[in-house]
Amino acid sequence: MTKTQIAMYEKDGYVKVEGLFTEKEVEELQTEMDWIIEEWWGENSIGWRGPWRAHYLLEEERQNTKAIFISNPHFYSAAWGRIIFHAHLVGVIQSLIGKNVQWHHTILHGKPPELGTPFPMHQDYPFYPHDGPNFIDCLLHLDDTPVESGCLHVMPGSHKGGPLKHITGDHTRPYLPPDKYHPDKIETIAVPAKAGDVIFFSYYLVHWSDVNRTEEWRKSVRIGYHTSQTRPIDTPLEMPNHKFIVGGLKERGQEPKLTYH
Ligand SMILES: O=C(O)CCC(=O)C(=O)O
Fold first, then answer.
1. Which of 20, 117, 204, 229 has the most CB atoms lying inside 10 A of its own CB?
2. Ligand 1 center to residue 231 CA distance, Å?
3. Which burial class, exposed, middle or buried, applies to 143 when counting CB atoms under 10 A from its CB (0-12, 13-18, 19+)?
């Protein structure tokens, strides 16, 4: 990571990094994800539900978008297990938040051709609230992702204000109120990418993405990491989150010491 890239992450809340993986690694990740989709995915999903759809989609499109979400691809493929610990990926995270790094999650967001689902303006924080700012999501692109295929759009600098109030509830995934936060009202920057590129962004960064209206798939995998000192909010002390440490060590915070049972 160059100083300029690190400064960009700090100022804007995101940075796109190219060339972290070899062509062979990207090919293996693509092939094995395609295999997982074929072998394991069985649901017809329209994407995140909620009233925000009325603000982002034409009426005839609202119930007809398509999406694939697969969590934990490492349950099905070793290549996706290795990527969690990938030295270049973890190295970037360490340059941005320090040496002690914990993996949090991996999830595929697949937008099929023609009407791949959009995502409304939101921060990722309300999906998995933690007690500090040092939580980074990486969007690893498996396909070339031009603007027309529904690439990520970001609101630079929006991470600086910390968590914002989202519309939440059983009827919806968290989203920001469209009367204030909507692409027609707020200027955002499109971040198109090539297969293998990774966009690193703060979980406080406001972002969204549009419909995939191309004939090609747009598959990206979000991998979340945070400093090992960062703790999930509202998790009982005796249930520390047992997730891989991928860089350095995890210090004990308020948690009780381990006992044999
Ligand atoms: O995959 C996308 O286009 C959007 C992803 C997103 O909003 C997220 O990862 O929180």
1. 117
2. 23
3. buried
